[in-house]
Amino acid sequence: DWTMGAYKDEAIRKIREQVGDARVICGLSGGVDSSVAAVLIHEAIGDQLTCVFVDHGLMRQNEAEEVVAMFRDTYNIPLIHADEADLFLGALEGVSDPEVKRKTIGRLFIEVFEKHAKSVGGAEFLAQGTLYPDVIESVSFSGGPSVTIKSHHNVGGLPEKMGMKLVEPLRELFKDEVRALGRELGLPAHFIGRHPFPGPGLAIRCPGEITREKLEILRKADAVYIDQIRKHGLYDAIWQAFVALLPVRTVGVMGDGRTYDYACALRAVTSVDGMTADYYPFTHEFLGETATRIINEVKGINRVTYDITSKPPGTIEWE
Ligand code: XMP
């Protein structure tokens, strides 16, 4: 008889067996997957675990502060807040190719993890919240040819020469199972219900070159959009929603002046496991109200579009 309780006990046993008395660092992104992995591993090995939250400067509005506060205050799991925005944004300067972005970010994550593996006194293991769909999607697309669609930084991006072994206790699970495991571990409901957020963060929601100015605009627009979704009670009906800031400026008119600002695209999908997805059927009223709010409240955007592509043929993220 298979239950999450039994799965949890078995996972804890396996982690202890794999790790022994070695030290482990766990990359924490603030998402459900890495948080569940961290809490699970902490139950298994206690203070042999240190979490590392890599703030790459590509998080959403207030996200870094919220994640750090939650882990320090609620869980009492030792946590390093690595503020590496300059490192990541510096390396991404002038980069517009999506795969180069992903690989650059993946490489820097490893660098930062290796640095902190040393700083905690020599961690032998790196833990990650890799899920089953991450594993298969980085090798082949379901039903399609065996090609890499995207380099997931927490799978394909890991260099062989990395001096750490991996602990990936969620590698056999789908998202809904990770959420069930999270409930079993006592994580708060509002946290378990959070939409997925990709490791490369806003970098892959800002097609083309990334600048701090663009990231600031994107953060504000995304916050307004998510606020709209929550106010309309739609958050839990949607698998994932975000704004992508498009690398194109368009002409508009506001008051009695001409504007020449960025266009953005709203994305919202329903899905069971992220492998396939349908765009969310918002009402015209919702879309109109949201577009008006974004244009009024976010300086730098004067045009809002809605992405009605399903997956396949689109992917959920734009890069
Ligand atoms: P795509 O865009 O491939 O995304 O349809 C499927 C799901 O995976 C998330 N995603 C990532 N998650 N590292 C992650 O941890 C990544 O590199 C990555 N790329 C995409 C995406 O947000 C969606 O939920």
TrEMBL record:
Its EC number is 6.3.5.2. Keywords: ATP-binding, Glutamine amidotransferase, GMP biosynthesis, Ligase, Nucleotide-binding, Purine biosynthesis. It catalyses: XMP + L-glutamine + ATP + H2O = GMP + L-glutamate + AMP + diphosphate + 2 H(+). Signal peptide: none annotated. GO terms for molecular function: GMP synthase (glutamine-hydrolyzing) activity. Residues 2-194 form the GMPS ATP-PPase domain. Pathway: Purine metabolism; GMP biosynthesis; GMP from XMP (L-Gln route): step 1/1. ATP binds at residues 29-35. Catalyzes the synthesis of GMP from XMP. Homodimer. This is GMP synthase [glutamine-hydrolyzing]. It comes from Plastorhodobacter daqingensis. The chain holds residues 203 to 521 of 521 of the full protein.
